[in-house]
Write a structure and sequence with these properties.
Number of domains: 2
Protein name: Gfo/Idh/MocA family oxidoreductase
Radius of gyration: 24 Å
Number of strands: 16
Mean pLDDT: 85
CATH class of the largest domain: Alpha Beta
Strand order of the largest sheet: 10-11-12-9-13-14-15-16
Domain Gfo/Idh/MocA-like oxidoreductase N-terminal: 91-207
CATH architecture of the largest domain: 3-Layer(aba) Sandwich
Distance between the termini: 17 Å
Region (Disordered): 1-83
GO molecular function: nucleotide binding
Organism: Jiangella asiatica
Shape: elongated
CATH topology of the largest domain: Rossmann fold
CATH superfamily of the largest domain: NAD(P)-binding Rossmann-like Domain
Order of helices and strands: HEEHEHEHEHEHEHEHEHEEEEEEEHH
Largest sheet: 8 strands, mixed
Number of helices: 11
Helix content: 25-40%
Length: 431
């Protein structure tokens, strides 16, 4: 059995030709209902480290090396003046999907950042297209294929139902666009491998919208762990509890629905960042309980790495009395989430002696008295995540696309998450 993060999973054949024809509604493309006047960007030759050491991103910071001739029919390198203008030009975004995530997260977040401008959107709903046209003065399309053919678009954001993420991502890469894919990035590790290969071939970046890596409380948790106050970690528990009987498209397996892929994946991604690389044993319990449809709405995962803490993830629509969203036990301290932040209790191991073992019968049949430990406590307030996560995500991506910084959410890191999801589905039969 392939373990988490293993590159040895067999690759499933993908019909890329048919994938590229995938649309939001299945009908043919239509011309833009409005256009913008900005000029298209040229192909790129700046190197940055993403899923492959040979990847080159899109800011034209230097010409190809003499040993690396440019592709046939490639445009000449830009002048110094053109280079400066391109680096300072906002990233031109084409947004596919204007639903909950597309409009409330991506569009809303991008609109607040000077590093981006939305130049095109695609959605089958004419009212949503009109709303986007009014707000962003952008081109609007009823089909994603037309948006992918728009030379103004530099970065494509795929914010459509889960089962369309891979085919639309592949089509965007085939059109030589950089791509942000909403989570889940894919349903299988084979599909993640296919996206990475397509990105390398197209000389473009592909990444996943794991904006909860910037969740304030998660960043505070990492800071506490890094401080060493908790000692050696023994247990990490992450709980997302509520009682809700869902009845939208995310309760249908045919659309890539389910609590695991669409909700728990955020928190699984966080937890994997707290573990060492290496094999992970998995216990999985996926159940369809109170929601409509046929996908799971209750998820229980237990991850046991070769070294490090046991990880317990519970994401459920079936629990009316929530538990702490975070609970971490270590050899010298404990962390628990509280209203508005985190509470930590710990001690300095240098202030206590090693326990002295006493063999034989217990004097007077008494249990040992608790030793005297000077405990310290702290409550850390954290702001709500809300839109901050999205802003930080896109700011990091802008520095990758324009300044050549390393990609923050690499496909390789997301592949490890998808491996766990895929194995959990295989073991429980909820495919």
């Amino acid at each position: 059995m392939t373990t988490a993060g293993s590159p040895g999973t067999s690759r499933r054949p993908v019909d890329t030709a048919s994938s590229r024809r995938t649309s939001l509604s299945g009908s043919t493309t239509t011309p833009a209902e409005s256009t913008t006047s900005s000029t298209p960007s040229r192909a790129n030759s700046h190197r940055c480290r993403t899923s492959s050491s040979s990847h080159r991103c899109g800011c034209w910071r230097r010409s190809p090396r003499p040993s690396e001739p440019p592709p046939p029919n490639s445009p000449p390198p830009p002048t110094e003046g053109a280079l400066a203008r391109m680096i300072n030009t906002p990233i031109r975004v084409g947004l596919i999907g204007l639903g909950r995530s597309g409009w409330d997260l991506h569009a809303a977040g991008l609109a607040e950042l000077d590093q981006y401008t939305i130049v095109a959107v695609a959605d089958p709903d004419p009212e949503r297209r009109a709303e986007a046209r009014s707000r962003f003065t952008c081109a609007t399309y009823s089909e994603p294929e037309a948006l992918l053919g728009d030379p103004q678009v530099e970065l494509v954001v795929v914010a459509t139902p889960s089962h369309t993420h891979v085919p639309l991502g592949l089509a965007a890469l085939d059109a030589r666009k950089h791509v942000v894919v909403e989570k889940p990035m894919a349903q299988t590790t084979a599909d993640v491998d296919t996206l990475m290969a397509a990105a390398d071939k197209a000389d473009r970046i592909v990444t996943c919208f794991q904006n909860n890596r910037f969740e304030p409380i998660f960043m505070a948790v990492r800071k506490v762990i890094d401080s060493g106050r908790l000692g050696e970690l023994v247990l990490i528990r992450r709980s997302i509890h509520r009682y809700i009987r869902r009845a939208d498209w995310q309760v249908l397996r045919a659309f890539g629905g389910g609590e695991l892929s669409n909700t728990a994946s955020h928190f699984l991604d966080q937890l994997l960042l707290l573990l060492d690389d290496g094999p992970i044993e998995l216990l999985a319990d996926l159940r369809h309980t109170v929601s409509a449809g046929d996908a799971e709405d209750h998820v229980k995962l237990v991850l046991k790495p070769k070294t490090g803490p046991l990880v317990d993830l519970e994401s459920s629509c079936t629990i009316a009395t929530p538990q702490n969203t975070w609970f971490i036990a270590g050899t010298t301290g404990t962390l628990a989430s509280v209203a508005g932040g985190l509470h930590i209790t710990w001690y300095d191991p240098a202030t206590v002696d090693e326990p002295r073992l006493v063999e034989g019968a217990a004097p007077e049949r008494a249990y040992p008295s608790p030793e005297t430990i000077t405990w310290q406590e702290e409550t850390i307030q954290t702001p709500p995540g809300s839109g901050l996560r999205t802003l930080l995500y896109y700011q990091h991506l802008a520095r990758t696309l324009r300044d050549g910084e390393d990609l923050f959410v690499t496909p390789k890191s997301v592949r490890r998450q998808i491996d766990i999801i895929e194995r959990a589905r295989q073991r429980t039969g909820l495919l």
